[in-house]
Specification:
CATH architecture: Alpha-Beta Barrel
Order of helices and strands: EHEEEHEHHEHHEHEHEHEHH
Number of strands: 10
Radius of gyration: 18 Å
Structural class: alpha/beta
Strand content: 5-15%
Number of domains: 1
Oligomer: single chain
Largest sheet: 4 strands, parallel
CATH class: Alpha Beta
CATH topology: TIM Barrel
Distance between the termini: 32 Å
Length: 306
């Protein structure tokens, strides 16, 4: 962690926000591919990707959608593609993107968590699709499960395919888990972690908590790079704090639908541009995709399977 070039990750759609919350949320394979190309041109070196049912916008794990989107992006952009291995589904289904596409990087959640998405329903008066309300209500009695065995098994899949894990940490205890997994040989240093906070069930999204996360990780893990992601009003504040602390940045419609002024973002590009301005104001240069590959130590786009 230092003042090296900033690696910006754009998380362009996610699996939390629904179409009724924003008309600008990218859903179809073409929309997702276009957003990925555009955010790279705006300064993002990495695109964190989920897929959605192109008809309804419902979150999906359909490998055929990834297989449609990724080659489309690769033909037009040098951006690093980092698919999610989260979502609802068993481990085999969630890691299929690694087996099939062998990406340079992918997310790896480090522990189980109870997400409560009920507050997101408060402002919605009309729903565009029938699945949205039950999906959000169901979070009240749903656990996003990532046992130690599941994490170790997933990490083995990553290693076999030379895919670098982007470690998702949702609470302080998961720092202990990362340190343990490094000690056991399931993860190798240096690691890249995303401090994912702010939703009910996660650590609160405060600058004090971000500082505590980073300080504790430094004590227990040693060498690492980090981003932070959160929804709501604190999104831009936490990005600024992370950048000032020598971290990288993660921004996009997976994490927030709003710009710093409280207005709906009309594209992921607008969110990336806000982070670029902050980084430049702090005197930090933006890393290109190839520079990010070198910094993180990725295998390169010639070794993927798409």
């Amino acid at each position: 962690m230092n003042n090296s070039k900033v690696i910006i990750m754009a998380a362009i759609t996610g699996s939390v926000y629904t179409p009724s919350m924003s008309p600008y949320l990218p859903i179809t394979p073409q929309q997702l591919a276009d957003e990925a190309v555009a955010v790279c041109e705006a300064g993002a070196a990495i695109v964190h990707t989920h897929v959605r049912n192109p008809e309804t916008g419902q979150p999906s794990l359909d490998i055929e959608l990834f297989k449609e989107i990724f080659p489309n992006i690769k033909k037009r952009s040098n951006v690093i593609l980092c698919p999610s291995t989260g979502g609802r589904g068993d481990l085999e289904e969630r890691t299929k993107t690694i087996h099939v596409l062998k990406p340079e990087m992918a997310s790896l959640n480090i522990g189980s968590i109870n997400f409560n998405l009920l507050p997101l329903m408060e402002k919605i008066k009309e729903w565009k699709f029938d699945w949205e309300k039950p999906f959000l209500e169901g979070s009240f009695d749903r656990t996003f499960q990532n046992t130690f065995k599941q994490v170790v098994d997933a990490a083995r899949v990553f290693a076999e395919n030379e895919t670098e894990p982007d470690l998702e940490l949702h609470d302080f205890g998961m720092i202990n888990s990362v340190a343990y997994l490094i000690e056991q040989g399931a993860l190798r240093k240096p690691v890249h972690i995303d401090i994912n906070v702010g939703k009910i069930g996660q650590a609160p999204a405060t600058i004090d908590n971000l500082v505590l996360f980073v300080r504790t990780a430094r004590e227990l893990i040693g060498d690492f790079r980090f981003t932070t992601s959160c929804g709501g009003k604190q999104t831009i504040n936490l990005q600024a704090a992370a950048l000032a602390m020598g971290g990288d940045a993660r921004i996009g419609m997976e994490d927030t639908l709003y710009l710093g002024n409280g207005q709906l973002a009309t594209s992921n590009v607008e969110l990336v541009q806000e982070v670029v301005k902050i980084a430049e104001a702090l005197g930090r240069e933006i890393a290109s995709p190839d520079e990010a590959r070198k910094i993180i130590g990725l295998k390169g786009p010639d070794k993927v399977s798409f």
